[in-house]
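Notebook entry, structure prediction.
Reason for the run: the old model in the group folder had no record of what sequence produced it. Starting over properly, with the input documented here first.
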Amino acid sequence: MKATKPLWATLITIAFLIAAVFGGIYLTAPLSDPANPVTGLYSSVATTLIALALVFGWRRFVTRQPWQGMSMPLTWAALPQALLGVAVGTVAILASNSLSVAFGAASWVPPEARSELVGYFPLTLAIVVLSVGFPDEVLFRGHLYGTLPARLALPVTTVAFGALHLISFGSEASEVVEGVLYVVSGVALGFACGAARARTGTVWMAVGVHTGTLIAFRLFATEGVVYGVQLAIQIATLALTGLLILATARRSALWNRTGTEARNG
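New structure, fully documented this time:
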């Protein structure tokens, strides 16, 4: 089917993510209240539900792909894999930010500036998981990864995920070089998450890695001095993280597992 070809499958996945994000924002806009931080959770829940509904409907009624191809088994291993991913993602960003500070490319944000985050940490964690960590990984490391041929799954999902960062190009980057590095950092994050998906055969560790990086950016926040250097260090750290994750699995077992999943997807 044309819709499962690599190019079409990738474009459709990107469209689903954009629809889920903006759909979640606009559907819950009437409920938003800046004075009540809990209302921030509404759009996050909506984003996750829209992403799940889109991919379920697509696989059920259009491509006729089994849900098992999403590699989201609800087993006892799911939580440990997710928590391991959180730890890996957190350590990667903590190491990256620490190196940036050590090289004089950044400085730590004062602890008092993060006091609100600590006070609302459970809420912040829920928002991060439901607005970004879970829906992104369900679509890219679940649906798209399981749709693509085994040899293309990791590289295509990695590059496609990174390309999405073109949408936020310039949000922090003030120069073209920094903007390019920002996109490449998205590719590096996609590689780390994809490596977790390949290593475990499920999306749960990938969700954890993605969530861990986002939480670490907040808990161990830095103030940019030389943003381009920060991004270069971040790219190297996340790429190394992905390689280390892959190195923990035997190559034959890794590709046999992903190949079987792609055929079943």
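Summary: The beta strands are 106-108, 222-224.
The old model has been moved to the deprecated folder.
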